Structure formats: C-alpha cells, structure tokens
Amino acid sequence: KIYHDDDADVDIVRSKTVAFIGYGNQGRAQALNLRDSEVNNIIIGNIDDDYAKQAQEDGFTPVSIEEAVRQGDILMLLIPDEDQQTVWNEKIRNNIKPNTTLVVASGYNVAFNLLDLPDDMDVVMVAPRMIGAGVRDRYVQNIPYPCFVSVEKDVSGTALATCLSIACAIGATRGNGAVSSSCREEAGIDLFAEQALWPEIMAIFREGYNVLHEAGFSDEAILFDMYLSKEPAEIFERAADEGFVKQLKYHSRTSQYGQLSTMNRHDGKDIREKFRRVLNDNILSGNFAKKWSNTKWAAEELTKEWKEVENAPIVQADQRVREVLKPDRKK
Ligand code: NDP
Predict the structure, then answer these.
(1) Residues 83, 193: one domain?
(2) What is the ipTM of this complex?
(3) Where among 134, 154, 181 does a domain terminate?
(4) Residue 187 Cα to ligand 1 middle (Å)
(5) Whose CA is nearest to atom 42 of ligand 1?
(6) Which of 190, 213, 146, 163 is closest to 8 using CA atoms?
(7) At 104, which CATH number?
(8) 32 shares its domain with 155
(9) CA distance linking residue 136 with residue 36, whole number of Å
C-alpha cells in the first residue's frame, strides 16, 4: 500500500511534543522539516558537542537525551543503529513517559528485538530511502522522495495515524507517496544488499581486475574501463530511470549481445543458494544482529577487515593509478 498526503493528518504530530534522540544526518533534516511543517514542540536530545552546537545554531535548545525522553510524546530514535541498544538501556528505557510512540528510521533494532519496549508503547517506522541532506533539500524544494513506513506495535489503536502524520510532516508522503513496509523487510533487504549483493559485486570486480592484470593489460586501462570512467554509475542511473534491462539499448549491439547471451545462460544456482544461506542463516535468524550488538567485537572485526583489504591487488592498483593520473572525482 502507498500512502499520500491525503491519508495523513499533520495536526496529530502538531499536538505532541516530539523528542529527537540524535541530531545527525537524519535527526537534523527531520527536525527542520517538522518545524517548517509547524510542529512547534520539538526537543533535541544530544550530548554537549558539535551536533548540539549545530542544533543551537538552528534555533533549538538541546538538552540531554534523558531529559528529551522525559518530555517526549513521540521519540524519534535517530542515532546510529549499532549504538541504539546501549543508549536505549542506559539513557532512554527508564525515562519514557506512559503511552509514548517510538519512531525508527531503520528497521534493524526493532526487527531483531534489540530494544526492551514498554508494554504501552506504540512503535512505527518512517524510513526515508535518502540521506539526511536529501530529506531536507527535497522538503525545501517541494520534491518527493522515497520512504518506507510501517506500524510495528499498535497499543493505542492510533499508531498508523501518528506514523503517517510524521511521514507527511517530513515531506515523505508527497508525490508518489510513502510505501508500506515493515522493520523486518527494511532491515532484511538492507542487510542482504550489504552482505550478499554488494560483496558479490565487489568480488566480481576484484576478480575481473585479477584476470585482466594476469593477461598483461595495464592497470590504468583496466580500472578506467571497470569504474574510473564512472560508466557503471551511469548504467545504474539509467537502470533506475528506464529499466534494469531496458538501459541496454544505450550500449552497442556487440555489448548487448555479450551481456544478454551470457546472462541468459547463467543459471545462478550457486549464487542463489549462497544468497539464501546469507538471508536465512545470518540475517533473518538474528544471528548477525546478535553478534553485531557486541560493539567492542564489532569495532575490532571492522578494523581487521579494513586491514585485510588494503593488500588486495585491485586496491594497490587503484592507489598507483590515482597517483599517476589523479582522476578528478568532481568532474
Ligand atoms: P548519524 O551518524 O548522523 O547520527 C549522529 C547522531 O547520533 C548525533 O546526534 C550523535 O550525537 C548521535 N550519537 C552517535 N552515537 C551516539 C551514542 N553512542 N550515544 C548517543 N548519541 C549518539 O546517524 P544517521 O542520521 O545517519 O542515522 C540515524 C538513523 O537513521 C539510523 O537508524 C539510520 O539507519 C537511519 N537512516 C539513516 C540514513 C542516512 O542516510 N544516514 C538514511 C535512512 C535512515 P553525539 O555523537 O554527539 O552523541
């Protein structure tokens, strides 16, 4: 189901105190959008640092997270996903007022039951598919942007109305509207892209480089052809605008034949099996979320992975080519 401006009543959120937990990418954009939608009772919860300074410059009076939670009828949980569980337990859980609504911008912590939710709490998701700056710019310019919405827990019986009121006030129900989804679906697809789709694409590029390099082709030519020319970015843009396969019409006939004849014969069986395992065993089972909640372990593992990739031949070649050619990323 798709929800439009007509489905929402912005007066609902205007009548509430909205507490922002976090004033980063999404927090700042959404708070400014709400204020411009005449939501006047906005409290920003943040420690006293650069984010709080930014909130002050924007005309808000930031308070501690605990204080913001104590005042809020609606809690906008807009800190990084990996920090939410700890901050919830230490600063949020014991300060929540009765009958509060929790709003998340990503499904992760709700989908994997990482937050200890009060029984009387409504939980909804308003998840823009857009970086914070995009959420703000598009609101100001009156341009629609994609967003997922869902009701995860409806104790009051009015959770959907509150959810749509917030979505509308941040500009997410304009144009094509906000798409009904769920925390499980949002988090599942997001993690799948991160743990199955993109790693496979990156590995394909890595192996493409290895084979072409072995064949004696120059690093400059290989990397320009593979991605430095930005051709893949253009292909994906056309795929979004005109169709995943239809964009092939912009390629030469030789290229069309090469791509279609190879892809049509690719049975995809091994990869499908692998993807199913990642989705079911690692993601939907909650195994990954459980491991990733251990923030110390997570930080160490991420550092290890970064160290390992530094030595990959394609990364070294990328550095060498950049030193020689200095491709200007802005052009
Ligand atoms: P940011 O990294 O921009 O969040 C920064 C904010 O979180 C700051 O206010 C920061 O305050 C606060 N914060 C960070 N760590 C902690 C901590 N340990 N304790 C308390 N506050 C902390 O986050 P995003 O805006 O990118 O993400 C927020 C939510 O929005 C997430 O759920 C994310 O998945 C979702 N989302 C993000 C999108 C994006 O493009 N960025 C797109 C759609 C959804 P300080 O460090 O001062 O404490």
Answers:
(1) no
(2) 0.96
(3) 181
(4) 16
(5) 131
(6) 163
(7) 3.40.50.720
(8) yes
(9) 10
Please state, in angstroms and rounded to a whole number, the distance separating the CA atoms of residues 246 and 258. 15
Question: How crowded is residue 57: how many other Cβ atoms within 10 Å of its Cβ?
Answer: 8
Q: Residue 325: which pLDDT band, with cuts at 50, 70 and 90?
A: confident
Whether residues 141 and 250 share a domain: the answer is: no
- Of the residues 164, 181, 198, which one is the last residue of a structural domain? 181
Tell me the C-alpha distance between 174 and 10, whole Å: 13
Whether residues 168 and 271 fall in one domain: no
- Ligand 1 binding pocket includes 26 (Cβ within 6 Å): yes
| CA 102, 108, 111, 115 torsion-angle sign | negative
Residue 107 CB–ligand 1 contact under 6 Å: no
Q: What is the mean pLDDT of residues 205-223?
A: 97
Q: How confident is the model at residue 327, as a pLDDT? A: 58
Is pLDDT at 158 greater than 60 in this prediction?
yes
Tallying the residues shown for the chain, one arrives at 331
In a shared domain, residues 62 and 42: yes
Q: Are residues 38 and 153 both part of a single domain?
A: yes
Q: How confident is the model at residue 82, as a pLDDT?
A: 87
Our mutation pick for probing the ligand 1 site, out of 79, 84, 137, 292, counting the most ligand atoms within 8 A of Cβ, is 79
Angle at 182 between CA 181 and CA 187, to 5 degrees: 110
Q: Residue 92 domain-assigned?
A: yes
Average pLDDT, rounded, for the chain: 95
Q: Give CA separation, 206 vs 62, 123, 209, 223, 259, in Å.
A: 46, 42, 5, 10, 19
d(CA 144, CA 210): 42
106 and 19 together in one domain: yes
